[in-house]
Write a structure and sequence with these properties.
With 94 residues, this protein is an all-alpha fold. The protein has one domain. It is built from 5 helices and no strands. The longest helix has 14 residues. This is Transposase for insertion sequence element.
Length: 94
């Protein structure tokens, strides 16, 4: 199903809500991603870097035009990084 595989390619915005399937399928962080992020960035930058990475991987674009982030994505990033769920609603706070 090429359409499903390319669901977010070319997108410059995220929907207000993401399903668990979408989060796990398109916005996943691998163990090697987490190790690389932890090795290269300060703790207060981890969530921002991880969000940028998963969005870039899913869409092929940077987060330049994204105003808000779905709670499901923030929760997933926090869980995978072993951080409290980021409570930010805007990338400007990253």
């Amino acid at each position: 199903m090429p359409g499903l595989e390319l669901r977010y390619v070319g997108q410059d915005r995220l929907p207000a809500r993401l399903s668990e399937f979408d989060v796990e399928r398109y916005f996943a962080l691998t163990d090697s991603d987490i190790a690389a992020i932890n090795e290269r960035f300060r703790r207060d930058r981890l969530a921002g870097v991880a969000i940028q990475l998963v969005f870039l991987r899913a869409s092929g674009r940077t987060l330049d035009h994204v105003g808000t982030l779905p709670r499901q994505l923030l929760r997933h990033i926090g869980e995978r990084l072993g951080l409290p769920t980021p409570t930010i609603a805007s990338l400007r706070t990253l």
